[in-house]
Automatic annotation (TrEMBL):
Every FecR protein domain range: 165-265
TM regions (residue ranges): 87-109
Organism lineage string: Bacteria, Pseudomonadati, Bacteroidota, Sphingobacteriia, Sphingobacteriales
InterPro entries according to UniProt: FecR, FecR_C, Ferrdict_sens_TM
Protein name (Swiss-Prot/TrEMBL): FecR family protein
Keywords: Membrane, Transmembrane, Transmembrane helix
Species this protein is from: Sphingobacterium detergens
Length: 380
């Protein structure tokens, strides 16, 4: 769980201003139980008598009169009382709580940031685990290249018409599925594969590039190609071709299917899109849409590149976090929506990736252990 200073301050402030989600409450509870000094901070913030006393003093202060005096002494505009002043004064309680929160935890602040990331932080290495139907599991190490399930001992593969493959943060994997389909898996990806007499099915969370092998099954006297279907959330991708990429996070806020060869059908509820090479399906306001992309630059995951085509920084940092196994904390939330373009090797040092982003003059980074702190570039 994230216990960085800025994140704890954020949780303490949010707990008093608007309330925490279930996951955020678990994080704050974990931090509170970690040390007696942490419990003291929470106890001080929970001291309602002290907060009530300070709030009463704040409410008793004549904010409108104070504002008018300031206006007369420092502003040349005619004196007019705007409605927003009253609204502004109603928010003083929230401001005080936030200020008190920062006051109580300011001793936590540590300026010991590093200008560069730790040299021990490396690009993703081959790593992951394959869980077989019979209960066995296979740990993948960096020495492995492409793992073929067809080459495993018979006692492991026998009856394995289903399996689960996962990669951790900082891990990647290339695997040959039992049907001969080759898959390149990104970091922090989970792939659940099973096969029946008439269907091949994949459930995916994360990102993977597929080169689907043709496989046939008999339907009466006719042999038909066995369908290959990828499901992520409520979106289904049915293969009518061979080479395509699917990327989807758990919430489906970032989903895309990119076609490089053949055809695929992307379906969400009753809406479906048939993609041709050079087209991509993506999520826009909760619904799948189609757009044209440049496939000449190749597939980023398979070919070993980060390709950012006017991507928000939040999406870029998600990729960097998974690939380099680092945490990301934003010191300015507005910077998340800033968009960037670029093409960088996935074998690059983290420092080189950061230098390219900073060279745009839009964003600053600083580091502490394996955490990246992201801030908006301050104008001089």
């Amino acid at each position: 769980m994230e216990h960085t200073t800025e994140h704890i301050i954020y949780l303490l402030s949010k707990s008093k201003l608007e309330g925490l989600s279930y996951e955020e409450q678990l994080q704050l509870d974990s931090w509170r139980l970690n040390a007696a000094s942490n419990r003291e901070v929470c106890d001080m913030l929970d001291n309602k008598e002290m907060l009530d006393r300070d709030l009463k003093g704040l409410y008793a202060y004549d904010w409108e009169a104070s504002f008018e005096t300031f206006e007369q002494e420092h502003l040349s505009a005619p004196k007019t009382i705007f409605p927003f002043r009253r609204i502004w004064s109603y928010g003083i309680a929230a401001v005080l709580i936030g200020t008190l929160t920062l006051f109580f935890v300011r001793y936590l602040m540590d300026t010991g940031y590093q200008a560069n990331p730790d040299v021990k932080i490396l690009p993703a290495q081959t790593a992951g685990t394959i869980y077989l139907k019979n209960g066995d599991s296979i740990a993948i190490s960096p020495k492995d290249t492409v793992l073929s399930l067809a080459t495993l001992p018979n006692n492991l593969t026998k009856g394995n018409d289903s399996l689960l493959i996962s990669t951790p943060k900082g891990g990647k994997m290339a695997v040959l599925l039992p049907d001969g389909t080759k898959v390149w898996m990104n970091a922090e990806t989970q792939l659940d594969y099973y096969e029946t007499d008439s269907l091949r099915q994949v459930r995916l969370i994360g990102e993977a590039y597929f080169e689907v092998a043709k496989k046939y099954f008999s339907s009466g006297e006719v042999s038909q190609v066995k369908p290959f279907n990828v499901q992520t959330g409520n979106i289904h991708v049915t293969v009518l071709g061979t080479h395509f990429n699917v990327k989807a996070n758990k919430s489906l806020s970032d989903f895309r299917t990119t076609l490089y060869e053949g055809k695929v059908k992307v379906q969400q509820g009753e809406r479906q899109i048939i993609l041709s090479p050079g087209e991509e399906a993506y999520i826009n306001i909760g619904h799948i849409q189609r757009r044209t992309i440049d496939t000449e630059i190749g597939n980023a995951l398979k070919d070993g590149y980060f390709i950012f085509n006017s991507e928000p920084l939040s999406v870029i940092m998600e990729d960097i976090s998974a690939w380099y196994n680092v945490n990301v904390v934003y010191l300015d939330n507005e910077i998340k929506s800033e968009k960037f373009e670029g093409m960088l090797s996935r074998n690059s040092r983290l420092k080189d990736i950061i230098n390219v982003l900073e060279s745009t003059g839009k964003v600053n980074f600083k580091f502490k252990e394996n955490t990246i702190y992201v801030d908006k570039k301050q104008s001089k």
